[in-house]
Protein 1
Amino acid sequence: MGVVPKTPEELQIMRRAGEILQRTQEAMKAELHPGVTLKEINAIAEDTIRSHGAKPGFLGYQGFPASICGMINSEVVHGIPGGQKLRRGDLVSIDCGVIWKELFSDAAFSLVIGGGEAHPAREKFQQTVRQALLAGCDAARVGNHLSDIGHAIEQAVRRGGYSVCKEYTGHGLGYEMHEDPHVFNYGSRGQGMLLIEGMTIAIEPIIASGNPKCRILSDGWTVVTADGKDACQWEHCGVVTPDGLEIFA
Ligand code: MG
Ligand code: MG
């Protein structure tokens, strides 16, 4: 399936899916303190999504058992929220999706439990990944090439001394959570398709603080860094415009 730009009506629905996801992120952030478990955060997410009359985008997706992916420290992506109590200084990334009237939103944030001062090195890492994401969103403008997004992300990540986990990418989204095209987090300028008006994508740098080599745990889902060092994910979804990505969530 090729890239299908969304209609103004579809974009309005996706904006609403994004708003509900933003409310859900706020509800989770309010409870992300030492002692809480990701299982509890998952319950907050699911309750918040359903209270808006929407559906969790992740629950049951390819058999995934929860409404969020939650990653602690060396976990990279696809973490199943569990019963481990979070500690001050832990680096946590939370990825979540919402379905509103059949259309998806998908976004992730990262933070240090107890605040940035609880672990300045992890705070610098997650802020760098966030800045890389914003650089990627800025490059997501009509007339740019797809690879300009990945180029911007990779440059920002490298400047910080970190590495892109290249097997994980952003993506188109709409009636499916993952639509064409892949949105890579690396590349040289001016490659791939031209970005067009109405194209809806998720941009998601997935970054290692050390070596980017990853492995999957025996639960079949959770990806961790092979060297045990920290990883971080940030993600926005939205629509390509002449001024960069209009961020839905
Ligand atoms: Mg996501
Ligand atoms: Mg995504």
Protein 2
Amino acid sequence: MDRAWESRKAWLAALSAPVPEGVNNPLEVAAFETETYLDAARTGRSVRFVPYPAMKESYEICRQGNDFQIKGGQPGVLYGAYALIRALQAGEEIPVGVQKPYYPLRMLNCWDNMDGTIERGYAGRSIWFEQGRFDYDPARIRQLGRMLASVGINVLCLNNVNVHQPAQHLTDDLLPEVERFAAILRPFGVRLMLSIDFSQPLQQGLPTADPEDERVAAWWRQRAKEVWRAVPDLAGFLVKADSEHRPGPNAYGRTHAQGANMLARAVKPFGGVLVWRAFVYNCMQDWRDTKTDRPRAAYDLYRPMDGQFDDNVILQIKYGPFDFQVREPVSPLLYAMPKTRLAIEFQLAQEYTGHQIDLYAMPPMWREIMDQTGKQRVEAIAAVSNLGRDDNWTGHPFAALNLFAFGLFAWNPDADPERVIRLWCQNTYDLPAEEREKLVSVLLRSRAIYEKYTAPLGLCWMVRPDGHYGPSPYGYEFQAWGTYNRADCRGVGVDRTAGGTGYADQYPPEIRDRYADSKTCPDELLLFFHRLPYDFVMRDERTLIQRIYDDHFEGAEAAEEMQEALRGLPLPPEDRQEALTRMEMQVRNAREWRDVINTFFHRFSGIDDKKGRRIYD
Ligand code: GCU
């Protein structure tokens, strides 16, 4: 069996020996990991574990001279063990004292299809599905469990939210397979979740999937019973309903609260949660209709339902009101549902952010989002996975940083992006400090650079339709997805203030006021909230058009600088080769973006670049 993946460590460089089969629970994994690490590192230190079940996911590291004691629940001791190893490996201060995760539910959503493809996957095929069945290397799943546990991720949703072949997931013959898979991850404190199809009763012979029909509710209760009998610690079900042509309660004139609650009641006896996605909008919009504004959709739909959801329903909200764009304001729904349990959803898969070809380290973006959401209102966090069957797990070797960092942010949303990026570098590559700092700096700047050469001032959606890589400023303009920039010769952007679509009014007043005034609206969101002429004068006294040109020229130039910086890094040969090949593609992509977007706006505005740089006619 090809085990190349084992030597490409993603960030587990410190952990030399694979976790053997038969290591049965988090405590045993913790003991194995610390012993092998300390032996290999010849530190002369030892670790003693004190199981304390009531601490559950928390742990406390104490230092006694040269030795450590880790007290905690299960899997708390395991999180403590990894935190200790991570810190020793990085030469960081040991995190003594009690540590507990901020979000109880820290979940990876895998968009894996049973045929082995991954929706929006950029790192190869599914690691566990192929041709309609489970097909995996158990050692690799153990390594996956270890990766997730090492950064505190505790739930993995196994299948795509678009459940294309629902019958295959919950039929009895597949349940033992789900359990076998769950059993491999269990010692790592990782539980499974399953995506379900709201219309499944129809496919099983019922005449309806109406959530208010008692036959439907009974069918789901029975289903839940069978599923939990097979996988007793399943975390719950994840549902995408009435969204992008997926079936849902609206077909029966029922609300999403009715739909979610019916399912929540079926899973409740087993301690399951029902995660309901709030990614719901009209994907059949007429572009001529300027009244409908897609970003409004989730708030308009769910806000009136606050207080109607059962206590084991979690409403999962994408961080922005559109769809994982490079820059969006934080979703106003995150502020608007005080009586509902909420999860925030990120996307590690780089769908709109460079396909794991272009560098895009997410921690700086998450820092901004976390600072704005009033994170205390959110109690769960999910991210779409960026993993696949590629040997290095994430296609681009540096894309592993985003999974690592997601775990650390889910544990502590106050994390410092630079520190997390550095920690990943230290735990992945053995680089001299000066070289390591070059890599840290490239990664830290990568998001801002990508934003500069792609998305001007919060416009979004100038990407090629379908694939979502490369520029196409009018690609989405006359389509049904509700994603318009309305650029013409007079100006660009959508007025989302009270005088326009009114979207800005969905925010609490102080945030609304800041966004609604073009003088106080942050530059990077200016065209998200306002429609402005090309000669609009920005706060720094540049005109809007000049700023668009400058950003695109500077962004493409900065991509070339990143390439230069990477060339000199003494990385392991496969990673270096892969990173440089992708960097070359990124530089080409950045130039393409620069030229297409600048030409597009030059044609509309008729205004030349003040600095006389080349803009194609
Ligand atoms: C995006 C993505 C889809 C996905 C959807 C979702 O629109 O392009 O592939 O299904 O998000 O989050 O459900």
Protein 3
Amino acid sequence: MKKRIILKPGRERSVLRHHPWIFSNGIRSVKGELTLGETIEVRAHDGRVLGWAAWSPNSQIQARMWSFEKEAVIDKNFFKQKLAKAQFAREGLIARQGLTGYRLAASESDGLPGITIDKYANVIVCQLLSAGAEYWRDTIVEVLVEMFPDCCVYERSDVASREKEGLEQRIGVLHGELPEMPVIIEENGVKIGVDVVKGHKTGFYLDQRDNRAIAAEYAKGKDVLNCFSYSGTFGLYALKAGANSVENVDVSSHALETAMNNVAMNLLDESRLINSEADVFKLLRKYRDEGKQFDIVIMDPPKFADNKAQLDGACRGYKDINLLAFALVKPGGMLLTYSCSGLMQAELFQKIVADAALDAGRDAQIVRKLTQAQDHPIATNFPEGFYLKGLALQVL
Ligand code: SAH
């Protein structure tokens, strides 16, 4: 007998709408001895076959759909087709923006639950977050090597959420030889150093690419404060666009070192860049007390909420930094502010920013609503894929 799960009555509805997650409380019964990550058939209570999923017994999301087709076979060819499709979907973008660094596969949004693959020039970085992704690791690597024979494949599955899946964290070379770090990528004519070993996530924040280009539009002749700068790429784009000065603020000295190298590599004037290794909350309070102001303030904090219990604290965090940010914008200047917490709804984020403007005593207008770069798409069957929200505000 095929290994399978049978859903409770009514719980087939979201699967029929091609939502890939099946929660443990939606499963009526399990047939056969299922092992971690293996492929199982999914049936409705009345016996209808809904498709095929990966089994994640330790997670609340106990099955993740690979396919909604009755006759599908999950094998090497399946991954080959999915990854080829993901690459195909990005080719126009790669050409338009001159990308050598991009997200090749964005997990559920590319029909590959738990699988994130970023390509940085000749280094491909995989982040495998679910039991199903882990189960197919070798196959995924084989397919990537066939698609990109000259690339090294590196794993950065050092993410705490793997524990919920019953998996250990893993890092290391999966194929080929890792070149010396940083790898140099290019986007929109800007060169950027990426350290896939020591960097955050898979090494870089590809998702802010379009927002860097938007920041650059406002930057000519301006003084820019780039908060939570990481490797300083918002500032790098701004300098390239002719900013008068950029101050990067981050707690990571390694990230700031990369920021300085990025400026040199792009043959820009290093004397226009200040790197402040500091806590944004503290430094901004100090600047506010000193009455220091900038033409453009960029506020791109790390994720403040990983789960619902952290949401209240996250709201206070966003309120606090945006309140400080508004105080630091010159009249007529801009605040570019972001939230990458998927749990923070766009409407709530906008309300928090509005409250911050009110409390700071500033009139502000939203002139643009911003989101994640196009290689981080939101599949229509998976709205949860939307996580990065931003507002461009003109402050009067
Ligand atoms: N804006 C960046 C990405 C920011 S990620 C880009 O476009 O690439 C968040 C950054 O915030 C990380 O680099 C982290 O080191 C930094 N960080 C986290 N908490 C901080 C704090 N309290 N003060 C300053 N930097 C902080």
